Structure formats: structure tokens, C-alpha cells
Amino acid sequence: MAVDERTLNILACPLCKGKLVWAAAQSELICRGDRLAFPVRNDIPMLLSHEARELSREELEQMEQHKS
């Protein structure tokens, strides 16, 4: 599953209302500001705070490096 650009432009982090970034390898939507990863299951983003997992700074940096 891939999240298209139009969908990404509509979605926002439910906590800070910031931009979400698609992490295809993990099937997650990432909020860099809150360092949270929201899962996508059966093509449905789970944008609930209790569904999110916290990202360490190191994990977020690794994702940024792999994106480049």
C-alpha cells in the first residue's frame, strides 16, 4: 500500500496538526514534530494517539537518512 500525495496533503497529525510523512518500509505515517508513527492497516491510517508508537531520535534520524 502506498499513500498518494493528495492524501498526504489532507491528513495531519491528530495531536499537533502537523504534516505527516509516509514511511513505506514500515507502513506508517510519521509526525516528525511529535516523533510519532501512526500505523496504516488495510489501507486505513490509524490516526489515534493510542495507536501511535513513539520514535526515538535515532530512529527518526535513520528514517531521514534512508529517505535521502
Automatic annotation (TrEMBL):
Which InterPro entries does this one have? Trm112-like
**Top-rank taxon, per record:** Bacteria
Q: Which GO terms describe its cellular component?
A: cytosol
Concerning its family, UniProt says: Belongs to the UPF0434 family.
Q: What is the protein name for this chain?
A: UPF0434 protein CWE24_10805
What organism is listed for this UniProt entry? Pseudidiomarina donghaiensis
Q: Lineage of the native species? A: Bacteria, Pseudomonadati, Pseudomonadota, Gammaproteobacteria, Alteromonadales
